[in-house]
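Reading a protein record of the kind used here takes little practice once its layout is understood. The reader may check this reading against the record printed directly beneath this paragraph.
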Amino acid sequence: MTVSYKGLDCLADKETAAFMMYHKESQAKVAWMDQPHYGKVTVYFGVATIFLALLKHVWFRYTDRRYASGHRSPSGLLPSLLYVITGYCRFFGYIPTPKFLVKVFSFPSSIGNLLFAISTSVYLLCYCLIPHFWYRACRGFGSPPLAVRAGIMSTALTPFIFVLAGKSNTISMLTGIGYEKLNWLHQFVSLASCVLAIIHTIPFIQQALAEGGTSNLANAFTDNIYINGIPPLVL
């Protein structure tokens, strides 16, 4: 079982000048050094979410203190709009998810949390799966772009997993949300990281099998310097 590209065998012709030329062409189209961008957009999404929760927490504390001190609630277009948005958020936040979905699929217990989990999943999967190319013509041209994207995104979620694991954590301090209410989010982010890690690993296995069968796969994964596809799963 072999794979060829423009007349070159992906395994037997690795050292030829033509192979090196096609390697440079492949890297020019989708450079490995451009892939960390996907880790950044993953972190940006998490930071933006925490920032919005922080603004909500500050607004609630401000209005509560005004009420406790005997002042009237703030009036005007912006405060009114904020109260309307807050009301809708609480409405969706307190609607319980059907029990069978929670019990069978371990979905979050409220519709608001479920909608957030769905939107986050769509965001991560779109950034991971929509950009092309998924694979390079030959494995020797570089790591599969899909694998690199998924691995970097999986690793980018690791800091959030560690922070959410503690009872006293920075996210709870900034947002005013107790750790017990963030447990589901810790589990969800961990699952998202695991799924991305699996997506990261599959292209390395698939392409090695396609180009040289099980013997090529065994050689690849017993090579001391071959670590691609493994670190995100370990994390």
